Amino acid sequence: MSGARTDAIVAEARLWIGTPYRHQASLRGVGCDCLGLVRGVWRAVVGPEPERPGAYSPDWAEASGEERLARAGERHFIPIEPALFAAGDVLLFRWRGGAPAKHLGIASSPTRMIHAHDGASVCEVALTPWWRRRLAFAFRFPDQAA
Which domain holds residue 99? Predict the structure, then answer.
């Protein structure tokens, strides 16, 4: 991925900082969840969303036990080794071992990410050891631009 492309992804994600957390939403400045943030950055940088996620409850991953986000990532992004992520890549985390991965963020540097977390707004945080232990999948945005 080109440096300009990476810069565009990170710059767009940073525009979402301060957007309140709203389950299933994806509207900058109004509300989003972690998936909504990634969907919004996709729309701005790549173009129209390739598929809609459909309705989902806050406990969808626990209820289904399926790696739904990882499978969607494999369909629409370029899977990469989690340890090899770079700025602009999508990071997918497990809250606990054995559970499906259900939280997304966008790496803004090798040591930071932008994400939306329940009960807060979109923010940029350090990728501390706590986060790194939970990193399960990583994806690169596709190269085609809108």
Answer: 3-49+66-140
Residue 60 lies in a domain: no
The domain tally of the chain equals: 1
Cβ count near 34 (within 10 Å): 23
pTM of the model: 0.92
How far is residue 28's CA from residue 19's CA, in Å, rounded to a whole number?
6
- Under a CB-based contact definition with an 8 Å cutoff, are residues 137 and 79 in contact? yes
Per the listing, tokens 């767009």 go with 12
- Chain centroid to CA 56: how far? 16
User: Which amino acid is present at 65?
Assistant: G
CATH number at residue 7: 3.90.1720.10
Domain contains 92: yes
pLDDT tens-place string over residues 78-133: 999 999 999 999 999 999 888 899 999 999 999 999 999 988 999 999 999 999 99
Q: Tell whether the torsion through CA atoms of 51, 73, 8 and 123 is positive or negative.
A: positive
Q: Torsion angle of alpha carbons 64, 100, 125, 122, nearest 10°?
A: -20
- Is 145 part of a structural domain of the chain? no
